[in-house]
Each structure stands twice: as C-alpha cells, then as structure tokens.
Amino acid sequence: MPVLATAGSNHHAQLGREGDSSFFEVLSIEGDFVQISCGAHYTLALTRSGSVYGWGRNESGQLALSAPTVNYPTLINTCFDDRVVKVSCGESHSLFLTSSGQIYGCGEGSCGQRGDGTYHGECYEPRRVLLDETARDVFCGARTSFAITDSGDLFGWGETTTGMLGPKVWHTPTLAVPTRLSVGPSRTRTALVVASVNFAILVTTTGDILGAGSNSDGQLGIADCCTYTWRPIRDVGRVSLVACGRRHTLCYQVERKRCIVLSNKIESFKLSKPTGLAAGDDNIFAWTDGGSSLFVYGRNGDGQLGVGAIPYVERLTNVPLPIKANVVTVSCGRKHTCLLLSAEEVQHGNYMVFMEDSFAAGGTSFWETFRESDWKKPSFGWVCTATSFAALITGVLIARFYVCHR
C-alpha cells in the first residue's frame, strides 16, 4: 500500500499536516500513489489512475487551486482530455504530462517557464505547453522546463541567463515557448534531464553525462565557472542514477560502484548498489536494498532530513522511517522532504526514536524505533513480574527496618 510521509518546515503548509517535524510522519491520506514532486514550498502527488493531489504554497497558482495556501492534500480538478502520467515541480510552477504526450503548465510564468507563450506572473488553471511534438518525459528546474520527445530530442524553455539551456538560446534571457536544444552530435539522444536553480545535467541513452550552466560550486565538475554549451563531465564515466541539488550534483558511477558528488561543499561517498538518489539544499538522500534503507547527510537546518534536530549531518546516516516500509522515491523541496513508501500495513500513531552508537561503523548511525503505544501498554506477564519484584523489594526493606530497630 503506497504511503506518503513528510518532514521539515511547515511554514507554508508544505508538509500537508499540522506543525513542523524533524522526523518523517505519515500523511492521513490514502491512494494508489506512484509519483511525488516537491517545489520550493509545495508538493504534488500522482496516483496510478491519473489523479493529482497538491498542498502547500500556492501564491502563483502552482497547485492549480484557488486558495493561496493549501493546508492538506487536496484533489486537483485538472480537466485534461487524457490521464496524467507524470507531474514535475519547479520553484513556483508545475508541469503535467498526459498519456497522449501533451504537456500542461500552471503557476509562475514571468520567465516563460510555463511554455504557453506568455510571461504572466501567475496562472491558476493549467494551460497547454506549445510543443508540437509528442513528449515522453518532462522535468522542471527552478525557473526552467525541459521535455524529451519520443525521438529522444530535448526541448527547453524558461530562464536562460545562466546558460543551462545550451548554446543556441544564451543571447535571450527568457523563452516562453519550447525550443529544440543542441546537446552534441546529431545522433545524441537524451534519456534523462535534472535541473536546479542555475544548472542542468542530462544523461544520454548511452549513459554519458553532460552539464550546462553555472559551475560556481563545482556542480558541473569542470574548470570554468560556467558553460553555455552542454559539456561532458569528465572522470565520472557511465552513470545509472543522477540528481541535482541546489548547488551540487549527485550520481552513481557504475564501474567504481561509488556515489560521486560534484560540489565544493559535499564529499563523495561509498555506497553499494543504491536503488535511488535525491538531492536538496546542500544535502543528499540515497536508498538501498530495494528501498529498505534510507541514508542522508548534509544540511538539516529545518529537519528536512528526518533525523531529528541536528543542524548538519556530517556523515552518512540511516533515517528512521515512521512505518515498516520500503522507500519508493524521495523528493526534496527547499526546506521540506516528501517520501513515497510502499507498505503492507500502515500503523498510525506516535513514534519515539532513540539513537545508539551515533556515527559508528564507518559513519552510519544506528537507530531503533518504538511505537509510543508499545511501551505505554505493557503485557500482562510483564505487569505480574514487575508487581512480584516490587513486593520482594518491599519485604526486604521492612525486614531490614525491623532488625535495625529491635
């Protein structure tokens, strides 16, 4: 059964429940969820049937709802002709990909990131993106958008000032309509794109990794401070997983079986066969063994890593999950994180977490999780044992008192 859980700041209702939390807590919503995506201060969740739920900040209409703030997961009436198969969130804009390959956008559009040909600052009703070809995937950066077509061509639109849309469009600061991007030789086909505020990373169908945009923090792994062309990232080799944080790139190197972090702030780490990777604001998430274990490290100023009130997690640390479940995927907002979990049975209730041997065994913390109800309601056998022990101690004390006062 798919389950959603959130942690971090709730200043804009981006957790979909009451209060902030530095540990992950399950949301009280049921659905056959298959995908999640976090914007800066909001979240979208997609079900297998194509229904979309949203919550959090909505000042520009990025949730396709009317209220400026949506406190709890709310069904979005998209009114599309076809079923939604993917959602993607930028800083304050959203894209919806349908089963027919059409894309719709809503939210902030001052940089043209909606792709509807306008630069209106807000849009509360999704509009069709002006892409003439059939799309098979969509991706949002902070104020940019990308689409991969059935033929493997890459299109981009939105903010272009950092060069993250490649060489043909750097001379114009914004694009309001999708433009075909040049990413290398004519036969180069794009398999995946991930983007952040001022840089983007793409992976080709052959597993090569290229980057464009700002390199101010070493996120592209090149010598220059920025690039307006898609350049191969050296010394990485073939990758199978990749994620973009605010100022860093995270990827899994197939040959060396190592997670590479391209950054001046976060170090690379050894991790055997990760199932997935995610990156946020100067932090990383990696889940292994089919999602049975979730590891994090980096900035945790708002509790978004889900390991308690620790401002910065300095070593790879295991995250205590709120239920017995496997991690399907992770999505990071600016100050919050959402997990999509797969669980056989959901156990609602409060949890207490105790940390033992912190940062032991090569930097991994070991956590043990207990349900609060488990220790508040001891079994009958334990009650009898405790009562007998108390009676024995009382008898010994009375005997000692009698001997001393004879």
UniProtKB/TrEMBL annotation:
Listed name of the protein: Putative regulator of chromosome condensation (RCC1)
Taxonomic lineage: Eukaryota, Discoba, Euglenozoa, Kinetoplastea, Metakinetoplastina
Pfam families per UniProt: WD40_RLD
Organism whose genome encodes this protein: Trypanosoma cruzi
Cited InterPro entries: Ran_GTPase-activating, RCC1-like_dom, RCC1/BLIP-II, Reg_chr_condens
RCC repeat locations: 50-100, 101-151, 207-255, 292-343
Transmembrane parts of this sequence: 380-403
Keyword Repeat carried by entry: yes
PANTHER family xref list: REGULATOR OF CHROMOSOME CONDENSATION (PTHR45982:SF1)
Keywords for this protein: Guanine-nucleotide releasing factor, Membrane, Repeat, Transmembrane, Transmembrane helix
RCC1-like domain: residues covered: 5-338
